[in-house]
Write a structure and sequence with these properties.
alpha/beta
Length: 318
């Protein structure tokens, strides 16, 4: 029914607080409880056909959890991806007042984090610049680009970028132009795309036509696609999504996933599930297909990119 494969991202599984709209539950937030839960969700995902798993050093213990899980079970037919460029500094402190992660796109940071991330190899297939921006200078840093090219040659990894913010398309266009030794450096692109944020649609279709790997993150708009009284301006969207969910006997998140699968057909669509129950609902997106009229209705809810990212930046870590 769809070329798209659902994958599992560990952003919410590896750290106790994340930019998302979550239920105010009082579940155990100890590192031990998170490790046990992460392994349970990873095992459920694998048992239900998921083979793509994505993490990063800034996801708290996410990279460590995935490395340990991969070492313990040694599944051969999995595709793992990780990133470099952000460091997790909240140190599992609940209610941490400062920035939970610090960005640094230097050669030293790349070398430092690669020494840890390469432990995921040979199942590691994609290595990404975490949140590439013009401001960080990473796309113009010849030393970094050369090092990434050397890693690519030594390991046969796909080298990629992840993007966020209002200028995702411009970042992708700039990355596409980068060549080292007359070869394209970047083969993989992890991008925010969902019912509310559709600004990258054209460039993502172009990437797919070029044979690049396209990975979609934040499919649920950090929880904003769920009915919420604090977002009354999405009232009509909530009505439409709930109606479709009842029609197809699935949850709201499955509708949001299916929209991306039918409207874009990316290579991978990341679930950010933090529990087995959430993941179970996510993968129900495989069980149906939206028709053209339903897709057009959902497409009509695209928002102004600047407003979308302003609203996202105002969400709290919880």
């Amino acid at each position: 029914m769809s070329k798209t494969k659902i994958g599992l991202g560990l952003a919410a599984l590896g750290r106790p607080e994340y930019i998302n709209i979550r239920d105010e539950s009082t579940h155990d937030k100890s590192q031990e409880a998170f490790r046990e839960n992460a392994f349970s969700v990873l095992n459920f995902a694998y048992q239900h056909g998921i083979r793509y798993f994505d993490t990063a050093p800034s996801y708290g213990k996410g990279e460590e959890f995935l490395t340990n899980w991969n070492s313990k079970y040694q599944h051969e037919r999995v595709t793992l991806s990780t990133k470099w460029g952000y460091t997790y500094v909240a140190n599992w402190e609940l209610g941490f007042s400062g920035a939970h992660e610090i960005k640094e796109h230097s050669l030293d940071k790349l070398i430092e984090q690669w020494q840890v991330s390469k432990k995921l190899h040979p199942q590691l297939k994609i290595y990404q610049v975490h949140s590439a921006t013009f401001e960080s200078g990473v796309l113009e840093n010849k030393e970094v680009l050369k090092q990434l090219y050397e890693i690519k040659n030594q390991t046969s990894l796909q080298i990629g970028i992840t993007t966020s913010g209002t200028n995702q398309s411009e970042i992708i266009e700039a990355a596409l132009k980068i060549k080292v030794e007359k070869e394209d450096l970047f083969d993989s692109f992890q991008v925010t795309y969902n019912i509310l944020e559709q600004s990258t649609h054209a460039i993502l279709k172009h990437l797919l036509q070029l044979g690049k790997t396209v990975i979609i993150k934040e499919a649920l708009a950090n929880g904003r696609i769920f009915k919420n009284e604090n977002f009354s301006h999405y009232k009509k969207l909530y009505m439409v999504i709930n109606s479709l969910a009842k029609k197809y006997r699935v949850s709201t998140d499955a509708i949001a996933f299916r929209f991306i699968m039918d409207n874009l057909e990316p290579t991978y669509l990341l679930s950010g599930a933090s529990s087995i129950e959430q993941l179970k609902q996510n993968i129900k997106a495989y069980s149906f297909k939206l028709d053209k009229e339903e897709l057009n209705v959902l497409k009509s809810f695209k928002t102004d990119s600047h407003k979308y990212w302003k609203e996202r930046n105002e969400l709290s870590w919880n």
